[in-house]
Amino acid sequence: MKHLDDIENVKKRIESIDLNSILFPSEINEWSELTKEIVDKKLQRICSLPLCDEDFTVVYTLYSRLKWFDALKACTPNKNATVLEVGSGSSTVIPNAMTAYDVNSKYITANMNKKLTEGLEKNISKLPIKFDIIEDDANNIKNYLASNSIDLVVFEHSVNDVLQAILCEQNGIDTTHNDWFELLPKMIELISKEYVEQTLEKKLKLAFLSLVNNCLCVLKPDGYIAISHYMFQYDLNLGYNPELWQDMLPIIRPWLNELSNVKEVFIDGFDPHWWLFYQKL
Ligand SMILES: C[S@@+](CC[C@H](N)C(=O)[O-])C[C@H]1O[C@@H](n2cnc3c(N)ncnc32)[C@H](O)[C@@H]1O
């Protein structure tokens, strides 16, 4: 597998921070129970293998939060930023990183699936930052947010979800009211088939770019879009095409590069295989 990150750089970055400024007190307790050898072993796995259940410990929490902390620092150098996430599900990776980076920032997510939104509401209400949840397709974001009002648009491991939801819609499958994870095997079958038959671009590019363009309308000039991806073993076990799963961002990069209102930027420490950054012109 293409490595997710450079282990030595990751270790150096972790050594450079005050853990108390990134982790919450209960996470610090968990961290303090780990030896250096265990931490290094876990980081090695995270950097070199698709993530599986055993990876979701405080070590991964720190790794991913620090990565997003650094992405926020690069993309929203002015504090009090408003960040829009597309397809958060119930995950609080982004609002947690925002809490660590700037407690005065505001988080907004556009998330379609009802059950996952309920989970998100429960998790996020414990955090000190301001937030809004938009229960709709991000393609309709202009109905909710003013033009040029957002500092950063984030797709945290959600390009795959957005593409899968578009394919489901094309196939008459409702991803809003059904259980997302019950639909997952079918979604994986659909997207892997399109990839193998080389019809991914024909089926998905226009709809995906339309969604991105609508997000760009609410993004401030000079604002960024930050996109991350990594591999879960779980999806591979369900039959995700391994090449598609690994190369998700290199596959959509040429699509995004067709947009005339953005330019791709490269940020030190972020592997362009797993991270895409675009700046609005
Ligand atoms: C598996 S979940 C969570 C993804 C999350 N980024 C992660 O990896 O932990 C995927 C979510 O993306 C949402 N989603 C997919 N396409 C979307 C769209 N066009 N607009 C808003 N939400 C979308 C789904 O409704 C679902 O709640």
UniProtKB/TrEMBL annotation:
Which protein is depicted? Class I SAM-dependent methyltransferase
Instruction: Kindly list the organism's lineage.
Output: Bacteria, Bacillati, Bacillota, Clostridia, Eubacteriales
